[in-house]
Amino acid sequence: MRISHFLLPICLTGFALGANPSDLKMNDRFTISPTCNGRDLDGLLAESVVMIKNAITALTALLGNIRAPNDELQGWIRAAQACWAIPKPEWYQQELAPVDKNRLRMVRRNFEMLLDVLDDLDYTTPSDNFMYCHSTDLRLTNMADEVFDDAPKGQSIKDYIGPRLPDGASKEWVWVDPNNHHHRILEGDGPSKLFFPDGYAGGQLCGSPSSMDALTYYKIPKKIFLCPNAWAKFRPSNSQNRQDKGRKLYYEWQNMPGLLIHELLHWLALMPSEFHIGDRNVWHPKEDRLVAAYGYVGAFLLSGHRARTDPRNNWPPDFTLTNADSYNVFATMAYSPLALFAPDDTASGLEFGF
Ligand SMILES: [Zn+2]
After folding, report:
1. Distance in Å, CA 263 to ligand 1 centroid
2. Which architecture does CATH list for 4-134+210-342?
3. What does the domain layout of the chain look like in residue ranges?
4. 282 has which bridge partners?
5. How far apart are CA 167 and CA 277, in angstroms?
6. Taking ligand 1, which is a single-atom ion, which protein residues have CB atoms under 5 Å away?
7. What InterPro entries would the database entry show (predicted)?
């Protein structure tokens, strides 16, 4: 298997991609769909790589002496608190606790693996990897026979899946790609059985402003969709924000390079290894439902910071390691360490998704 050697730490070079990020070409790695015409995908890839390298630098600093941190290190400590369930260090503390350092080493290893894979034109051969910026084919469905070969015609997905669910499982969203008959059902951590309302059936999953931001098939062929909604919503570039200071709501900082890191981590797909980075769920802070742990608020809640006031969000700290957007949020915060990131008040960054 082509990916097996990535499991051997000896093969991890850490700072791969010694080449200038501006020389990176997305079409060396992906077959680019014509739906991406006019998008600067090379620039996007280059910025993502710069953010990944910066995140690795930040994590390396956090694994060293943290006493009397300068402004930059203080920003990285804040990012690690928000994303990786690191407790606020005491003023006299020289180093983070061993358990927290181990978690940060795992995070760094994953960023390094991603960097390595992006550098390996054998792994990223364009014939196995596709990138789209729009799709009108992907749509939501509530009919089981559209996604399961053995489902009786006319049966709803809810009726088909319901009896097959193990106790305590939750499943959300089912969608279909008519060309490839792919489907995906997300498994959640909570006790509820969640299905999208029937009213969504037939709606576009990627291709209209009201549909998904992005999604990734992690099976061969691997496909990443960066949907029109994302291009409309997020900052196309993050490179101007390096020295920004002051308090900013996180959602104003959401950016396409960070979103690409999120999707690349799904795409990395080390399955069937011990590790796959997905989208974890948290309990919505104001409503009685599970939502994907997106954005600052999602990463923060997944880190257990509200566990005392809301025991439902008392997640094991290692859950953060398998949540794609925690990496996006960390890379974004670590890239602008002088800024004071704040959650948006409405928690609007918390939505269902892939
Ligand atoms: Zn995701």
Report:
1. 6
2. 3-Layer(aba) Sandwich (3.40)
3. 4-134+210-342, 139-203
4. 291
5. 23
6. 279, 324, 354
7. MetalloPept_cat_dom_sf (IPR024079)
